[in-house]
Protein 1
Amino acid sequence: MSALAPLPTRKAEDWRYADLAALEKLWPLAEAEAVVVGAGGHHARAIVQTGGGITRLALTLEAGASAVLHVLNAGGAYGRVELDVTLHEGADFTLGAVQIAGSGETAEIIATVRHMEGKATSRQVVRQAAGGTGTVTCLGKVYVAKGADGTDGEQSVRAMLLDRTATANARPELEIHADDVKCAHGCAIGELDANGLFYMAARGIAPETAKALMLQGFIAEALEGAEEEDHLRALAQQALEAVL
Amino acid sequence: MLKIENLHAAIADKPILKGLSLSINAGEVHAIMGPNGAGKSTTGYVLGGRPGYEVTEGSATFNGADLFALEPHERAAAGLFLGFQYPVEIPGVSNLQFLREALNSQRKLRGEEPLSGGAFLKIAREKAALLKMDMEMLKRPVNVGFSGGEKKRAEMVQMGILDPKLAILDETDSGLDIDALRICGEGINAIMRKPDKAVLLITHYQRLLDYVKPDFVHVLAGGRIVKSGGPELALELEEHGYEDVAA
């Protein structure tokens, strides 16, 4: 999308759940940052967006390259992370993302992963929590080009609604043009397990702490292996406490 | 220690307990036995404060305090431990993290200082050894991927660490093989068979009572205790079934 493009409307799929009023203040957007990881190279990065804003990243992995991306998108009126990932022969991409939104906040991830050549692997884990009137959205697309055989793509998107007034949108999408492909995607939106909360209470843990612990456990998988895992966990913990 | 008087309780307006009375003193082990649907598990859940279990009449005092006036976590801090028939899995939260949080939450409510990581680990190691449980298991998420027997042993490790005054153990023997049953039974004795503690065992079968000898056995049927006696009552039930007493 060009920076000169007009403000999108809800008719545009990728902006359907966006906070357009908040977007207007951020418009026009800068071009996506382009990162190319050369053949056999490795790239690791954490995108931490804790006060809203828009991060756009176009990542290209040449043959045999790998990248591990972690995202913490929490807080602020409108936080959006756009990822456009292109994988060549045998490339390996891992995404672990956490989104947290409280009242008046919208957090969204729009991720497109393109398997352009064979034997590339991608694994995406997105964990989200929304409280109050907050909204979390994950639009994730995996595209497998013709001839990209041996593709292995995995997508797991889950959201916890902490209040009846919170919203979670999830749209997993697969577009596959090759034959020999393994693509799995799972998506679930739910509430904290009442049995688990009572179990914790029966051991002496107060309700607010029990919820925070369960949510910590819930998001842990997405932050696993991050270079600054402890730091990200601590930031996520703060964001969780703010929405509980 | 625990005095239950004329307890009536309902789940979704359906009466389950219909006038249960029971008194448990420090140093005693009581067993509640009874047929399916008698209200055994409900008794445990009502005393533990599970949401959805409504007390409609009667009272329960725990060391002089009105038990039903306390929130579930406050009951735990007051010294009540509820052992679950089906221990719950909590993904992503390790046993050690869970138990340290639980113990320190309880201590805080009692006005005690929190335990340091080192002091906590020492207790955890000791209790895990008592139940012959590998410390590595306690680093794993709570009950996730544990077998039925491991879950029950983990419950007993929890009980050992939290060191309650009264343990209400709901079918701790279910799902246990012979060795695990003995280990759990010995664990209960080591942790709870003390003059200042008491146990209420809820069970279908006599077999756990071979290891944890009860002082009193009660038969629960139709939401009330219909017969009480000594340990010989459990043997009698094992031989003749519930039909005669529960009729």
Note: Residues 27 and 194 of chain B are 6 Å apart (CA to CA).
Protein 2
Amino acid sequence: MPTAIIADDERLMREQLRARLTEVWPDLQVLAEAKNGEEAVAAVRDHRPDLAFLDIRMPGMTGIEAARHIGDACHVVFITAYNEYAVDAFEHGAIDYVLKPAEAERLAITVARLKQRLGSKPSDLGALLTQLSAKLESAGGATQRSHLQWIQASVGQQLRLIPTAEILFFTSDEKYTRVQTESFEALIRKPIKELIDELDPEQFWQIHRGTIVNAKAIAGVTRDFRGRQLVLIKGHTEKLEVSRNYTHLFKQM
Amino acid sequence: MTVEGEGGAIKISPEFTQDPEKLALALDKVRDQIEEIVESQIEEQIAREARRYRETTGDWLMSFVMLLILAGIIVKVVLGGKKRAERRAEAATETAAEESLKRQLAEAQLKTMQAQVEPHFLFNTLASVDYLIETEPSTASKMQKSSIQYLRAALPQMREGSTTLGKEVQLCRSYLEILKFRMEDRLQYSLIVPHGLSSAQFPPMMLQSLVENSIKHGLEPKPEGGSLTISADISNGRLRVTVADSGLGFAAAGISGSGVGLANVRERLAALYGGAAQLSIEANSPSGTIVTIEVPYTFEADGRSDAKASA
């Protein structure tokens, strides 16, 4: 008798799939249910099923990551309600999938195909999964903006997110980087060298090996008695030295 | 009429004291006469003063005044050009600032529009309702009602300007009700918003963005789930609305750096209120995130309809 596990973080969805599968594939024995990726991997290891139905969006380990861990231990079928990211792989039939809510007619087609596949060894989906997880990540929405919008820093006892637009400048301070806003300063561990690559170059200028300044916060440039250029900051008394490599930023037009 | 004014003394004939109407007329007349006398006296006095002033001051004053006027004209001609240029520059800066503000607002509105109803949320919800119809019809009906309420509130939120906190909280309540059906014991939520603040003005879809953010990045990805609390209070005449969750927290959730949802909220606040609004994000203890929006406290005069909506 063919066996399977079902993984979805929502109970209703697991129950529905189980009910439909019983309808269109009475022989199939569901050995276990899992609520997240980790549990799915563990269930496959413990129960050694022929099939694993995996929801893509699950807490902790996603269905795609779980599929990677499962490897060729069993055939993988993805479950998805709406997939903005994986359409291609699914439509080309490279990966089996079930659309939520599971409908009997549609599921019957998938099941027919799965029955054929059961005889063969599970194929290696490695490359496809890498592709899928890249799509999933970019569709996840967290990485649409390439530049840093927030700096995560400790202010006193509190961990806070400081919007980069409110930062006047960064200076390196031995092991730490000092983050200065109009009203407070904070220390972070990320060095100037890394910050400059992640900040928006239009808005943040490096003026010294150890200094990045918000262009919008620059009030003017002056020189000290030794002829060094100093940047004056709006709303702050500190003057920031411009090293020779960066003086071109402040040349007269 | 026998009203007489003689040497400042005014006599009223006794016949008037018997007829109040006639008396009133007579009194009016008297008042007019007194006013006339006083005015002419004042005018005379002013004329006298002016004469004395002209006599004591010499011609030098006249020439000094002329000189002053001349100097004034010269200064005005010289400075006029500069002032005009400055005014033009100022006007140009103002227009530019206004334009950029308008653009920001339009962009922010567009982003809100795009963030309206997440398809993933919608499809998953519909899939759940579908199953509940067969298994637990009464729960399905409840969930369906929450969905309708949510969509009704979320979709016409395109209206510009502000709505009330009561309506926004109601929208979040429907959203959380739906998620509660789906996430079950992985989600606990509470709304601690004093009823008196229902009519406070609040920008549309902002609270919803914070709640969605908490769910999406904080609670949904956390295997054991957690709790979410919406609260509101007035502090120093400002309305403070807080969404606190016990989710993964911004460090683990990876929203630090380039979190788009929160950046949008921040931009919208800046476009709507300038410096008068604030968005602060802190780590919650032992885990999770606390996001607070602070805006000036103003309320809708007609608070009744809102009270009804949030009842």
Note: Residues 1-9, 303-311 of chain B have pLDDT under 50 and may be disordered.
